[in-house]
């Protein structure tokens, strides 16, 4: 479904016909329209559960992570926000390394939105919120839904702390590192490629 403000300039993506006031050429996809309506009905039917049970799962997940794993930070305001997601910064680690190890444990999370999949650049949204590039590269987004359970949250909370600890143990960045706030990633990569002072594990920024 597409909303366009009146008098807003709009360039059609699909041209060739005058359907939908010239905004999208071609015969309307009736099957998709019906499916969209049904999806909206199902979403509305589960709205109360999402705002109560799923919110409770999210809050327990978030609060436990912040309380048990040091050097973590919730990104964004506590309220108001969506009931099913949380974005947490883990200092001194790379998000992509966290994703890989969680995936090996059968846990699916993300380091950003689907539209930035494959990009190694820090999220422009997190940067606009005031995070440093180094911290933004260590952010993980946890998303829950009506099919998630307390047992699955427990499973994540069991596996996440040792994963973060393992990655921090091999990270060149830690509390005592002299360049915590301005780590030069490009110099580190060049040095590593030349074989001088090579470091094991992911390079954190």
Considering the chains and any ligands shown, give keywords for the structure.
single chain, 205 residues, mainly alpha, Aspartate Aminotransferase, domain 1, three-stranded antiparallel β-sheet, 7 helices, 3 strands, 7% strand, disordered C terminus
Short recap of the structure:
The chain has 205 residues and is mainly α. The chain has helices at residues 30-45, 47-68, 95-104, 124-128, 133-136, 150-169, 185-194, and strands at 72-74, 85-90, 139-143.
Describe the structure.
- By secondary structure, this protein is mostly helical.
- The protein is globular, with a radius of gyration of 22 Å.
- The chain contains 7 helices and 3 strands.
- It has helices spanning 30-45, 47-68, 95-104, 124-128, 133-136, 150-169, 185-194; strands spanning 72-74, 85-90, 139-143.
- It has a domain at 53-194: Aspartate Aminotransferase, domain 1 (Alpha-Beta Complex).
- The protein has a 3-stranded antiparallel beta sheet with strand order 1-2-3.
- The model is unreliable at 195-205 (pLDDT under 50).
- Helix content is 42%, strand content 7%.
- The longest helix has 22 residues, at 47-68.
Per CATH, the class of one domain reads Alpha Beta
Q: If you average the pLDDT, what whole number results? A: 83
Task: Going across the biggest sheet, name each strand in turn.
Answer: 1-2-3
Task: Please provide the count of β strands.
Answer: 3
Which fold name corresponds to the CATH topology of one domain?
A: Aspartate Aminotransferase, domain 1
Largest sheet: 3 strands, antiparallel
Q: C-alpha Rg, in Å?
A: 22 Å
The helix fraction, in percent, is: 40-55%
In CATH terms, the superfamily of one domain is Aspartate Aminotransferase, domain 1
- Specify the number of helices: 7
**Class based on secondary structure composition and strand pairing:** mainly alpha
What is the CATH architecture descriptor of one domain?
Answer: Alpha-Beta Complex
Q: Unreliable segments (pLDDT under 50, ≥5 consecutive)? A: 195-205
End-to-end C-alpha gap: 39 Å
3D shape? globular
Q: Per DSSP, what share of the residues sits in E-state strands of 2 or more residues?
A: 5-15%
Output the helix-strand order: HHEEHHHEHH
């Amino acid at each position: 479904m597409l909303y366009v403000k009146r008098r807003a300039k709009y360039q059609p993506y699909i041209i060739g016909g005058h359907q939908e006031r010239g905004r999208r050429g071609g015969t309307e996809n009736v099957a998709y329209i019906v499916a969209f309506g049904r999806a909206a009905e199902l979403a509305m039917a589960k709205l109360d559960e999402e705002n109560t049970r799923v919110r409770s799962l999210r809050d327990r997940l978030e609060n436990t992570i912040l309380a048990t794993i040091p050097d973590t930070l919730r990104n964004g305001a506590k309220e108001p926000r969506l009931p099913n997601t949380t974005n947490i910064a883990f200092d001194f680690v790379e998000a992509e390394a966290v994703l890989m190890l969680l995936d090996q444990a059968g846990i699916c999370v993300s380091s950003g939105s689907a539209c930035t999949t494959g990009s190694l650049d820090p999220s422009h949204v997190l940067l606009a919120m005031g995070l440093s590039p180094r911290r933004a590269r260590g952010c993980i987004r946890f998303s829950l839904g009506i099919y998630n359970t307390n047992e699955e949250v427990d499973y994540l909370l069991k596996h996440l702390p040792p994963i973060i600890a393992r990655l921090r143990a091999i990270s060149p960045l830690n509390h005592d590192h002299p360049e915590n706030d301005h780590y030069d990633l490009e110099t580190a990569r060049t040095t590593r490629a030349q074989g001088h002072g090579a470091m094991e594990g992911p390079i954190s920024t």
